[in-house]
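Revision sheet: structure tokens.
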Amino acid sequence: MVPKGAGTLLFTGASASLRGRFGLWRVQFVKAGLRTLAQAMAKEYASDGIHVGHVVVDGAIGGEKIKKRFPEAASREERLISIEGIVDGFVFLHKQPPPGLVVRTRRADLTRELVIRRLSQSRIGCGMTSLQRSRRLP
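Predicted:
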């Protein structure tokens, strides 16, 4: 990617990278480390034209695996994150126009972190990261 001066590298994280929870420290420190790595790589490779992003999937994914392991989840599908929604998030990050091709777009304007969760989840920020909240238009 560096020789071409373009590319996208996306990491998948979980809500454990954002907040602590009792008994899950083994997962939390690994996911927090992955998030920090993505942030550092985004800064390091931005000048090389490489877009590095981190996608936080905050909740259970509505795929066959969870439906087989937890049959009761099928009856609460509205609480599961759709696989299509996750794909849409990744495609959104990947297809952001390269800086310079769009008027008034700078490399710093690229989304570097995206949180995907069900709208029914009541969390502070409604799924927006602090970066997204700081960039809202008036």
